[in-house]
Uridine kinase
Amino acid sequence: MKEARVMQSIPPLNEGERFILGIDGLSRSGKTTLAKNLEPLLQERFHPWFVFHMDDYIVEWEKRYLTGHEPWYEYYYLQWDVEALTRDLFQPMREKGLGLPDTAGIIVEGVFLQREEWCRYFDYVIYLQWPRQERFQRESEETRKKQEKFKERYWKAEDYYLQTVKPETKANLVL
C-alpha cells in the first residue's frame, strides 16, 4: 500500500535527469524496509535506481561518544560528518557525480534527512511517522533494557528534530 502511494508520486525521468528521493523518519520507523521494497519496483518501471543508507556514513565511535556534549547533541550533530557528507555525497549526487549514470533515480534513507544542510538536495521526501513506543518495541529485548540511553540520547535528539525541523510538515508525503 505504501509502495503504491510512493510509485504514483515518482515522475518518469527524462534523459540526463536525476531524481533524488529521501526517505526520512525516526529510528525503527521502517525507512530501510520501504527503500528495500521500493527499489525493485522503481527499477522495473524507470531508469536505474540506487540506494544510499545514511547508517553507512556514521563516523567513528570516538567522534560521536563521550565528546563532552550531551548525548542527544552527539547523536544529532556528531553522528555524521555533515560537511563531508554534503560535499562528498549530496552535492555529487545532485551534480551527476558518484560514478552513477546521468539518468538515474536515487533513494537516500536515513534519520534527520530534512535537516537544513541536506533538505535542498531532495526532489521528493517521504516522512515515516510512527509512535515512539511502537518503534521502541521493534528493538531487540536486549536493546530495550537500555531505555535510559534511548531517553537521553536518541529520544531527546528526535524531539529536537521534531520541534526544530518539523519534518512532517516539510515532507511531500507522510506515511
